[in-house]
């Protein structure tokens, strides 16, 4: 499948390069507001009251950053599947370069704003990156399908974090990162669409596996469950957003549920997806009712 999709990768890479607009992380960091921390520079230690960001936004920014920090693992997995020759190699390197500036910009912004505990952030980075990440996807089709879903999910998480941060500069930064993720999603989504033409049954089955077992790459971050609950409660990213703004738009755009002439594998995969959508809807409603019932009750560390 990797070799069969090589022409598609080349075409989509050219489209991506034509659409991408350069931006520079240093331009979105409030350097003039920054002050020295304690340590060799003898500055002021961090304390919670220094952060003006809502707790859920702090959580989202940390999860987003630590997720981006694991880029070496994502590069390794994608390179292992696609190789580093030809158009595939060009894309893997370009994607890695664009993703790399996200962590650079987010960390500098958080430090300059004194938005989160820098010591804890570094300790968590060491733990998270030290473990690494592997999606466990068994085939190239699965990797393409997973990355399609993940890039769209990440775009939504970044956008919503920016909208709720209450800081115009932070919102601009998150919009820039989200724009990158959107272009990456378009690349993988349309690559998956081409794979769907080559091997429809296997492609639908791979997407069903991904959708039904999906988890964000940051789920291994220390304290992820507590943070994810606060993030969900704030409306930054939750099951309802995942269903309405990620899964359903992808299924509609790709026409997955209306594909004709599928074999038994593809037909079964469509039924699995339909069943999972019902499960997502019911679970999202239960969580929303719980959040409404417990409005004002903090989710503590």
UniProtKB/TrEMBL annotation:
GO CC annotations on file: cytosol
Cofactor note: Binds 2 iron ions per subunit.
A GO MF term: stearoyl-[ACP] desaturase activity
Sites where the protein binds Fe cation 1: 68, 99, 102, 181
Domain of life: Bacteria
This protein's UniProt keywords: Fatty acid biosynthesis, Fatty acid metabolism, Iron, Lipid biosynthesis, Lipid metabolism, Metal-binding, Oxidoreductase
Key word ATP-binding present: no
Tagged with keyword Cell division: no
Residues annotated to bind Fe cation 2: 99, 151, 181, 184
Cofactor(s), by name: Fe(2+); Fe cation
SUPFAM superfamilies (UniProt xref): Ferritin-like
Annotated GO biological process: fatty acid biosynthetic process
Family, as annotated: Belongs to the fatty acid desaturase type 2 family.
Subunit and interaction comment: Homodimer.
Name this protein carries in UniProt: Putative acyl-[acyl-carrier-protein] desaturase desA1
Source species: Streptomyces aurantiacus JA 4570
